[in-house]
Amino acid sequence: MTVIHPPRLDWTRILEQASAHITTEYASLRRDGAPVTWPVTPYRGVDDRTIDVSTGITYPLKAERARRNPKVALSFSNPVGSGLDAPATFVVQGLATVRDADLRANSARYLQASYDRFPGTMKSVPDFMMRRMMFYWARVWIEVTPVRVLCWPDGNLDHEPRIWTTGADTVAPQSDPEPAGRGAGSWSNRPAPDWRDRTHEAIDRLGMPVLTTTTADGWPLPLRVRAAERTETGFVVRPPAGVEITDGPGCLTLHTHGSVFDSQENITLTGRCERTGDDVAFTVERTLNEVNVPRNPVRRMLNMLTLRRELQHRLAAEAARRGQAVPSFDELGFRR
Fold first, then answer.
1. How many domains does the chain have?
2. Which of 191, 189, 141, 135 is nearest to 314 (CA)?
3. Which domain range does residue 98 map to?
4. Nearest Cα to Cα of residue 103 among 60, 48, 57
5. pTM (global) more than 0.70
6. Is residue 336 part of a domain?
7. How far apart are alpha carbons 88 and 152 in whole angstroms?
8. What is the tens place of the pLDDT at every residue in 304-336?
9. Is 335 contained in some domain?
10. pLDDT for 223-245, tens place per residue?
């Protein structure tokens, strides 16, 4: 891999491209060190020093993992809808700061930021639905302070990446205090579908997957692969050139979204990786439950109502764990 000398980060360029993407593949680490990667929407940090993502307090595991182990990563490899001309492909490894001490401010920021990014999609949500979606608007923010960036400037993964670093003395602000008591855990208790059924023709439909492994120095490393083929036990994938892959636990994420973010389909598989020459054999152990968003507005609303039934009971409990009341929709000051 090519290390840029002096190894300082061209942060302005990275931030501009990152904040234009509709989704980023966000990777965090479980207690056992295994990575889990989900597509989420990236936002420019309020002080331009971070890339921020969020998760609902009714499904807070993305944040809880980051509070326990702040080493996280963001992959920017799906530029659909970004409006970027010849975008780079890049991965930001950084230190997470979890913010959930002010749910009202968090929710207001998320609601307004979502409207600013996706006005057409947000305008299609009826007023009565907006008010019934506090289980979704109530947010935890995760601010990612960059430490290292792997970049393919032309998006060509057959070339070795360039690497920028921010310096060994990089620190991130401390996260807000950990909530009291036991958390809600996984967002769904539904049995996950069999991975073979879920991934039938998935590569044709969703594109090349993102493989996440863990580096020797303990960072998650999500990488868009160059090639992938399904096997009886999982997948054989070819990672980008010039990147060292460590055998061990891994995650395979397939996803796509509409160009105005009016639809989304996600598949996340966890398992184990073994390097075999230029390829990596990924053995599936588990399929994670996911939320998919249909393009049809009526079906999208029905899906949201179903999700509300599953998650609404968590809302007050998770707010109480943080010593707060659930903010009302009117408190968020949102107008459209």
1. 1
2. 135
3. 2-119+126-329
4. 57
5. yes
6. no
7. 6
8. 898 898 899 999 999 999 999 999 999 999 987
9. no
10. 999 999 999 999 999 999 999 99
